[in-house]
Amino acid sequence: MRTKVDEEIDRLLKEGVISPVKHAEWAAPVVPILKPVGTVRLRGDYKLTVNTVSSLEQYPIPRMEDLFAALTGGKQFTKLDMSHAYQQILMDDESKKYLTVNTHRGLFTYNRLPFGVASAPAIFQRTMEGLLRGIPFVAVYLDDILVSGVDEEDHLQNLETVLAKLEEAGLRLRRSKCTFLEEEVEYLGHRVDAQGLHPVEKKVKAIMEAPNPTHVTELKSYLGIPQMGSPRVQRWAVHLSAYEYHIVYKPGKNNANADALSRLPLSEDVRESETAEQVLMIDLLDDTLVDTAKIKHWTAKDVILSQVHGYVLSGWPSETEAPLKPYHQRREELSVMDGCVHWGARVIAPNKDKAVPERKPEMVASPPHEDVARPAQHASSDKPLDFSTLPRHLSPEEFLQVFGMTVEDFDRLALWKKNDLKKQARLF
Fold this sequence. Notes:
Residues 149-176 form a coiled coil. The protein is α+β, with helices and mostly antiparallel strands.
């Protein structure tokens, strides 16, 4: 980069654009800009000096719509590009001292209008429009000039007038970037021909294939797209005229906050993973949501929580067994409400699978007849067994054989009384 900067300084000295000075009241740091062709453009960082205190030159930069309107009816087009555009405008002696830049080779002051001055675009646009004013089929946007005509003869006449004006003013063109008498040219990001304006394919492709913005800097690169589309809203409305629709204005303050996913959409090339369905699916639980009664029931039957429940109500010992130590360490945060153990504002729900099992007699049902109800189907139910559906020809002894029991076993377990067996029995 140092070599390229030296080459640019030598060029500017040779062409009289800059002059060395030994001292200056104003000196801005120099900023080298690398151009696509490989050379550099030197500009001063004048926001620290002259741009801060000077009055900004006021002159409107033409809109693209106004420029293209001046070319309506043109058949062929010539595009002219000026060489080092700003640096062809001479500065007066009073202004030079404010345009000094500081380089690794010392101080230099500009004799021509430098890049980086805030008023430079307005000054140059005013100068070029004043020079070429009155010539038909001519569009001027800073250093880019487009010339046309209703036919080839008219085109050549307009071009000759423009070139004569530039030569008279001592302005130079860059021959390598000029095109003459073309049916189609690219101007200000558009493709221009006799039929009108067309988008440049490579620019459209760049927008279509641009990645989704992920931070503010990338988002700013898209801010010019709505401005490009606004003049075409009327044409879009013509396409929509075949549909019935209503445009409703909604203030931004009424918009709800978007979630993270809608603010950062996924790219189009995201591949579906094998587990994607699991992410987008909530399994239907077999059990319904638990309530206080269930948690209270499970707490009473849980080996650990039942002890914690008692200690919270009656007081904790100084030492506890290993399974109780986590609760003992948080004993100041535990409380009991409605038979449930609370940790702060949360309820400790025990694992019902680890609860103390209810004592039930081990029974093997082997009914002698297929129409005898299987007691195993009722063993896990809280509802009383209804023996009215059992065959009437079974005696009490035969009925007990269904459970693998005898009358003596029945009396010993005290599950029900022998005298009440013919009426109804309940199995707990």
